[in-house]
Amino acid sequence: MKKIGFLSFGHWSAAPGSQVRTASDALLQSIDLAVAAEELGADGAYFRVHHFARQLASPFPLLSAIGAKTSTIEIGTGVIDMRYENPLYMAEDAGAADLIAGGRLQLGVSRGSPEQVIDGYKYFGYVPGDDESDADMARQHTDVFLKVLEGEGFARPNPQPMFPNPPGLLRLEPHSAGLRDRIWWGAGSRATAEWTAEQGMNLMSSTLLTEATGVPFHQLQAEQIQRYRDAWTEAGHEREPRVSVSRSIFALVNDTDRAYFGGRPDDDHVGIIDNIRSTFGRTYAAEPDVLVEQLRQDEAIAAADTLLLTVPNQLGVDYNAHVIESILTHVAPELGWR
């Protein structure tokens, strides 16, 4: 059995053929797609976070709205850029959203992806310290965020408060018990995956790795996952960790599918991202029987407990629900995922 969800980049544009033309469209259709995915039996609804772009940005209003309109599906991010975040304010937002959703939040966080603007986090008021990088700052924000989520008191109470306080140091409210164990780090390398395990976070591995060793992407990613699991065991954490991978997978079951995705290149790609040679995973697009055999060979999918299907959100809710349903119906049972 494998958890299967979707990951939406939340684009909107007025380009020809786009059914997501405004920010309002992107937000409302994201809610509708999460509801539809839950009805289809999918396990997760995840959303990218990008600032200064015509994409989803502030995640917690969206996650809270989805949490109020659904009852079983996991709701998450992939990923929140921690360079931009006030970790205490984020902990309050996350606690509230998780309580609304009944403990279904699965928050992916990370250093973030290449930005639309230069050093965008500076506009949000955050600047790395002397001799520190923006990645260092992201990890520092994450460390504070994780500590606050543990729910221990740390703030000295006012001796003459407006309202009575409980005894001892105060914690942030609202606190949602268990959310600390549902934080994932988006790791782009094998070394970062090991660090993720040491911090006691789940591993979210995406469609690219900031490494190129000459082996196929899925094998490099499988090695990353194994290194993560080994580091988790060595760290002595008590719970079982979770691991997700993201893939672009399309079952070609009708003419519309073939028009959109038939004939797509089916190889990995090596390119440059943030001046780092990186490996990008392939797109899977084929008839269901062919797709099943291709996916059987993907070592990283086999190693992960959660698969996130990246969806072309600008094609609209109905088509994306069809994409998800096609995988759940024609592919997942044949692979033993359902």
From TrEMBL:
SUPFAM superfamilies: Bacterial luciferase-like
InterPro entries: Bact_Lucif_Oxidored, Luciferase-like_dom, Luciferase-like_sf
Alphabetical keyword list: Monooxygenase, Oxidoreductase
Domain Luciferase-like: 16-258
Molecular function GO labels: monooxygenase activity; oxidoreductase activity, acting on paired donors, with incorporation or reduction of molecular oxygen
Gene Ontology, cellular component aspect: cytosol
UniProt-listed CDD domains: Flavin_utilizing_monoxygenases
Superkingdom of source: Bacteria
Protein name per Swiss-Prot or TrEMBL: Monooxygenase
Origin species: Gordonia crocea
